[in-house]
Amino acid sequence: MGQNVFYAVEENDCLSRQCCGPLRPFNIHILDNFGQEVISITRPLKCMSCFFPCCLQELEVQAPPGNTVGYVIQQWHPLSPKFIVANEHNEPVLKIHGPFCGWSCLPDVDFEIVTMDEVSKIGKISKQWTGLLREAFTDADNFGIQFPMDLDVRMKAVMIGACFLIDFMFFETTN
């Protein structure tokens, strides 16, 4: 309904941002409207190469901080982005499938959230097109996340983490 629910703050140093760009490790703190941290997202440093499956990206989500609720783990695929959403025990719960061409500069780019058997689509993470000027001259992005209302609240927190990982991997520039 257009209300701010959370604020995201990245904890990082200038050297990591300048030297590693979108590949940098990060800690993102999700704060509520009272400034209390409710979710913590941690991404370790890993080089990114689609040709070497040993360089796959991942992140851990804690909610509240100190209590791991899940992980987002990239799966190797030569043509399209794929991720596993796992619970706190690192057991797969959901999958995320990106488009063949995730670097589109036209309409919304959707990453489908599907069940483990890949039969049912239950939601999506969308990078929303904001217009030519904003897309060309800023690094600001808008994302939308859709999931069932009855999805476990811990998995909802992990979906927020997945959104940040997708943004860093596919929509951040290296400059």
From TrEMBL:
It holds the Pfam family Scramblase. Its cofactor is Ca(2+). The keyword Calcium applies. The keyword Lipoprotein applies. InterPro entries: Scramblase, Tubby-like_C. It comes from the Eukaryota. Keywords: Calcium, Lipoprotein, Palmitate. Signal peptide: none annotated. Belongs to the phospholipid scramblase family. May mediate accelerated ATP-independent bidirectional transbilayer migration of phospholipids upon binding calcium ions that results in a loss of phospholipid asymmetry in the plasma membrane. This is Phospholipid scramblase.
